[in-house]
Amino acid sequence: MKRRFAPVLVCVLLLAVSACADVQDDxxxxxxNAIVNTIxxxxxxxxxINVVEIQRERVGDPFFFDFWDHFGPxxxxxxxxRAVESIGTGFIFDVEGHxxxxxxxxxxxxxxxxxxxxxxxxxEVELVGFDERSDIAVLKAKGEKLPYIPLGDSEDLLVGEWxxxxxxxxxxxxxxxxxxxxxGVISANHRRVSRDVGGGDRLYQDLIQTDAAINPGNxxxxxxxxxxxxxxVNTMIFSVSGGSQGLGFAIPIxxxxxxxxxxxxxxxxxxxxxxxxxxxxxxxAGYSLRELGITxxxxxxxxxxxxxxxxxxxxxSLGDVIVEMNGEVVGHPxxxxxxxxxxxxxxxxxxxxxxxxxxxxxVFKVKELSGQ
Length: 372
Fold this sequence. Notes:
Blueprint: H1 2-31, H2 34-42, E1 46-59, E2 78-92, E3 98-101, H3 103-106, E4 111-116, E5 125-131, E6 136-141, E7 162-167, E8 180-191, E9 207-210, E10 222-225, E11 230-237, E12 248-252, H4 253-266, E13 272-273, E14 276-280, E15 300-305, H5 310-313, E16 321-325, E17 328-329, H6 333-341, E18 348-355, E19 358-365, E20 367-368
Antiparallel strand pairs: 1-2, 1-4, 2-3, 3-6, 5-6, 7-8, 7-10, 8-9, 9-12, 10-11, 11-12, 13-20, 14-15, 15-16, 16-17, 16-18, 18-19
């Protein structure tokens, strides 16, 4: 009887082993998902940017005499130099070794101390150019066959789709160059934040919002989709504590590409120019606007037009009230500035103006500000 059941027992054991192998394969397959594959593909192109600012400070107590004062005139306060390090993130985005990062990662720095790949290689880099208003800078690394992250398209992002933020949020705490990865979704597209964010001097508008954890040190790193393409440059967070609270924001890669193209071609972002200035209607309540035929209650009143500017050639007049600009409602001159900074030379501009109670459109192309 025992010999009769032996072959059956062997078969059962073989089936059990086969089932265990199948389960193991399923577990391995479930671990190696699209996110893991994407990270393995793009993380090698993310760089750590270490910059140094030399701060000079006066030292010495004016009421204190030291030993050397006995041998000559009293010396004034001494100046001491102090090196302050900070870390940000960037990523290589083409086969030539160009690196994208935020301008504020480099702003104020005296030295780019190092640019390091995750494999430990230190790259020799040079600054190609930057655009402070867009908060974008481009570096160029020397080397061959460097890894890079292709640039994607931020115009077709879906709210809820998976994205990964890759960067260096630990700053100088972590001494190895391995980047940190956080995963989340696109929380919102074309997010318009308060025009006061960035002091009104930067184009922090039309942003991608994500709940992927972004912390100080992540600035300049890529926001990547599951196809392994950069769809944004991680730039800022809204936080009470200073850490991530699920409110991270990235500059859309479609705008970044246009800024980078200008920098690579001209060494700078050409300054868009419209040729007019204005004041907010809401801040002119003390003036007798109705006596001047101005009936609009909101918008930007054109108070100055420069000669030979594109706007005046298209028919814009003093006293016109701009209520929309390329479909964006404007109520303050800063609103006009923010829309303008998102434009590029030769882009088309459509102003909806209120001229003594009548709505009309003024259409023209952006020119470059002379003297640049």
